[in-house]
Amino acid sequence: MAAALPPSQRSQAAPQQPVTFAHSPIVLPAEPASLQVKVLAALAHTVVFHRALGNTRPRTITLLENTFPAVHDQLVDDLIEAALTAARGELSKGGGVQLVISIYASSALAPSQLSSEESRPTSAGGSSPSGTARLKNLPISWISQAVSLANQAYTHGYTFSGYGPSAGDAVSAGGDVATAKSSRPGQEAQVPFEQWRIGVRVVSFKTEHERSKAFQSASKQLAAFLDATIDFVDRFKSHLPSVADSSLLPFPIRISAVPLA
């Protein structure tokens, strides 16, 4: 079940902690492996949909007799697909994986703080396109936000791994903000105001009957997740920062894939 610590209690116990949505991992059969990634995608798209507060083009994802909300936008698709790339690597080891979706308040950056680099090295020693090159065909509102975030990550050492991340790496999109721990001594890390923890647990079943029951159970678990997200966004609103503009993602979003404990 999902659980969250009310803002009033957070201020007394740990003022810097984000409001957190923590849902029990969805239990899935080991086969087909593609289903595990599809479920993670549906969960992640649902979370991003609820925090895409600007002008959106909604779409839906149908999976295991459930319908999930999503945003029809290429940058959102790229953000989630990059996180899924990291998740696939962890799933291949067995056990399960968790996506940690952190959402940050925006803070404007001066142009001088941004890098003008057009490429960044890859692990193979070549180069991959910068945020500017990759997003050049997207609407200008997306370019102004996503490119500044990618360049800031490149300049100041924040993790921005949209070109083939591994487990533990994070991918980001949204407004201008330092969304990870800074490498500069004495500079405090940005703390997300909200965090979502969603994942899947992979279990091997011996018989077809057990697998069939597992699919039915997964469908019910996903329905419970959808209900929990609606309850969460309805109950917890006071912690949301003010929205400065009509950008699709007014708050920067960072997704990391970590092993499921």
TrEMBL record:
Keyword entries, A-Z: Autophagy
GO biological process annotation, one example: autophagosome assembly
Cellular component terms per the entry's GO annotation: Atg1/ULK1 kinase complex; phagophore assembly site
MF terms (GO), sorted A to Z: protein kinase binding
Pfam families the UniProt entry points to: ATG101 (PF07855)
Coiled-coil residues: none
The family this protein is said to belong to: Belongs to the ATG101 family.
Name of the molecule in the record: Autophagy-related protein 101
Protein species of origin: Tilletia horrida
